[in-house]
Design the sequence.
C-alpha cells in the first residue's frame, strides 16, 4: 500500500496523492454515474453519456427486495465491466470492510464507494482511506457526516438519499442539510467554529475550510432515489456537482432513452425548455416506494456514523 | 457540458478574464477564446452532438478561435484517438494521435514536475488524471514532455495539455492563454 501522501516511483512522478484522488472527482462533475450489473448495461450507460459507472451484482432496489447480507461484487463481474467500457468504473465495498477495499484496489478499480447500500461490516469504524492509492466516495446525510468521511480520507462525497426507492425526498433532505450546515458557518469566528465542530462531530480544520470555500472541500454528488430527468435537475439546482442514478435507469421501461435524458438534464439543469423536451415520452419510470412504508430498520441511510 | 469547468473559471477569473459557460451554439457568440476542460471525452462529445454544438464549435476553432484544451479537451480536438469507444473520433483539428487513458487507470494517475518551453525555466506542477498518452505529435510544436512523451503541444491558436493546470494554484498557463486570446 502507498504511503499517506502517495507513493513516488523512479521517474519523479507521485502516484495516489490526495490531489489526483480528489481530481478525478472534479473531472466527473456535471455528470451522471450509473449503477450497472452487466457489461451490456455498462455499454448502454456509456453510450448514453454516463461519466462513470458503478459495477455491482444487484441494484439497490433488488438488494432491498431480496434482503440478506449484501457484499462486494464478484471480481469476475467487476473485471468484465471494467473491460467493457473506457469511462471510469467504480465499485462498492461494505462500510468498514477494508479488505474488500484492498481487493477492489488490486483489481485496478477507479473509485471505491464505501456504501451503506451494502451490509456494514463494522458498526463503529469506517475504513481509514488515506493509505489507499485508489480514491473513495462516501455517503452523508449532513455536514458533520460528510466531514468525518473526508477526514478519514474520502476524496468525494455523495448525499445518501434512500437508495432503491425511486423516491427523491431523502436525497433532497440530505442535500439541503449539507447546504444549511455550510450556510450556518457564515460569519462565525474561530471560537464559534470550535463549538460548532463539537456539536456536529466534525474536525474544526475542515469546518474552517468549508467556511472559507462556502462549500464542501471535495466534490459532492447526490444519490439515492433519483429516477427522472427532473429529479436530476432538482438536485443540480440544489447545488450538488453531479448525480448517481442507481435503480432508476435499469428498472425503468426504456433504460437507454431514460439514461440519455438524465444525462442531458444534468447538464441543462437550469434550462426548463430542454428539461421539458428530454422528459417527454420516456415510458414508465421505476415503481417508487414511500419512505414511511419502509420498516425503520430497513432504511439504508441510517447505516454509517 | 460536463467536467472540471468551474476550476477553469476560477483560474481564468484570477488572471483577470471574464468567463461564460458554453452549453449551446448561441453561447459561442463573440468569444475571444474557449477552454475545453477535462472530463469524460465520450460524455462531452455525445452531449455536443446531441445539442448541435459540435459542428459550430469545430468551425469556430478551425477559424482560429484561441483554444485551451486540457486532458479530455485534448482528446476532443485530436486527429486520431485510440482505445476510445468504437466510433469515437476527435474533431481532427490538432495533428496528434492520442491513446485514451494511455497512462493507465486511476491508480496510475500521478503528479510530476514539468519543464515547459517559454516558462522562464521554473518547473510547472503537472497533475495527470487518467491522462491521454500522446503517441505522435505530427506537425504540432511540443511545449513539454514527461518520460519522453509530449504532454503539452501547440498548433496555431490551440494549446493542448495532458495535465490539469486548473487543479493547481499556478496560473502561468492560464495567463498565457489569456494573452493568446487578447492578442487576436
Sequence:
Amino acid at each position: 500500500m502507498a504511503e499517506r501522501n502517495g507513493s513516488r516511483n523512479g521517474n519523479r512522478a507521485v502516484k495516489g496523492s490526495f490531489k489526483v484522488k480528489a481530481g478525478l472527482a472534479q473531472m466527473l462533475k456535471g455528470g451522471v454515474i450509473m449503477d450497472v450489473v452487466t457489461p451490456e448495461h455498462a455499454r448502454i450507460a456509456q453510450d448514453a453519456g454516463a461519466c462513470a459507472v458503478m459495477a455491482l451484482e444487484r441494484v439497490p432496489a433488488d438488494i432491498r427486495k431480496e434482503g440478506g447480507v449484501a457484499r462486494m461484487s464478484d471480481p469476475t463481474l467487476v473485471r468484465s465491466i471494467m473491460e467493457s467500457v473506457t469511462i471510469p468504473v467504480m465499485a462498492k465495498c461494505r462500510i468498514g470492510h477494508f479488505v474488500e477495499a484492498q481487493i477492489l484496489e488490486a483489481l485496478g478499480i477507479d473509485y471505491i464507494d464505501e456504501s451503506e447500500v451494502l451490509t456494514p461490516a463494522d458498526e463503529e469504524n469506517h475504513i481509514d482511506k488515506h493509505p489507499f492509492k485508489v480514491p473513495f466516495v462516501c455517503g452523508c446525510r449532513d455536514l458533520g457526516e460528510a466531514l468525518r468521511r473526508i477526514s478519514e480520507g474520502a476524496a468525494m462525497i455523495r448525499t445518501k438519499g434512500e437508495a432503491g426507492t425511486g423516491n427523491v425526498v431523502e436525497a433532497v433532505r440530505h442535500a439541503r442539510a449539507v447546504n444549511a450546515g455550510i450556510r450556518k458557518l457564515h460569519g462565525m469566528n474561530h471560537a464559534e467554529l470550535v463549538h460548532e465542530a463539537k456539536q456536529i462531530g466534525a474536525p474544526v480544520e475542515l469546518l474552517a475550510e468549508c467556511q472559507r470555500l462556502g462549500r464542501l472541500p471535495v466534490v459532492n454528488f447526490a444519490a439515492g432515489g433519483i429516477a427522472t430527468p427532473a429529479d436530476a435537475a432538482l438536485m443540480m439546482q440544489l447545488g450538488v456537482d453531479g448525480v448517481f442514478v442507481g435503480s432508476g435507469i435499469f428498472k425503468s421501461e426504456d433504460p437507454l432513452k431514460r439514461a440519455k435524458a438524465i444525462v442531458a438534464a444534468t447538464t441543462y439543469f437550469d434550462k426548463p425548455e430542454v428539461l421539458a423536451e428530454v422528459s417527454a415520452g420516456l415510458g414508465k419510470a421505476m415503481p417508487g416506494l414511500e419512505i414511511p412504508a419502509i420498516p425503520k430498520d430497513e432504511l439504508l441511510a441510517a447505516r454509517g456514523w | 457540458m460536463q467536467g472540471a469547468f468551474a476550476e477553469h473559471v476560477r483560474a481564468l477569473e484570477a488572471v483577470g478574464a471574464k468567463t461564460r459557460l458554453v452549453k449551446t451554439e448561441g453561447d459561442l457568440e463573440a468569444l475571444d477564446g474557449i477552454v475545453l476542460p477535462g472530463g469524460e471525452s465520450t460524455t462531452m462529445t455525445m452531449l455536443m452532438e446531441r445539442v448541435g454544438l459540435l459542428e459550430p464549435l469545430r468551425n469556430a476553432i478551425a477559424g482560429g478561435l484561441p483554444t485551451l484544451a486540457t486532458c479530455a479537451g485534448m482528446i476532443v480536438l485530436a486527429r486520431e484517438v485510440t482505445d476510445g469507444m468504437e466510433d469515437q473520433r476527435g474533431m481532427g483539428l490538432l495533428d496528434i494521435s492520442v491513446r485514451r487513458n494511455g497512462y493507465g487507470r486511476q491508480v496510475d494517475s500521478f503528479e510530476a514536475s514539468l519543464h515547459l518551453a517559454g516558462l522562464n525555466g521554473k518547473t510547472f506542477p503537472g497533475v495527470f488524471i487518467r491522462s491521454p498518452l500522446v503517441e505522435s505529435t505530427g506537425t504540432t510544436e511540443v511545449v513539454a514532455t514527461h518520460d519522453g512523451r509530449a504532454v503539452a503541444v501547440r498548433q496555431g491558436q490551440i494549446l493542448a495539455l495532458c495535465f490539469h493546470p486548473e487543479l493547481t494554484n499556478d496560473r502561468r498557463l492560464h495567463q498565457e492563454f489569456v494573452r493568446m486570446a487578447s492578442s487576436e
In short: Residues 110 and 191 of chain A are 40 Å apart (CA to CA). Confidence is low (pLDDT under 50) at residues 1-5 of chain A. The longest strand of chain A covers residues 89-94.
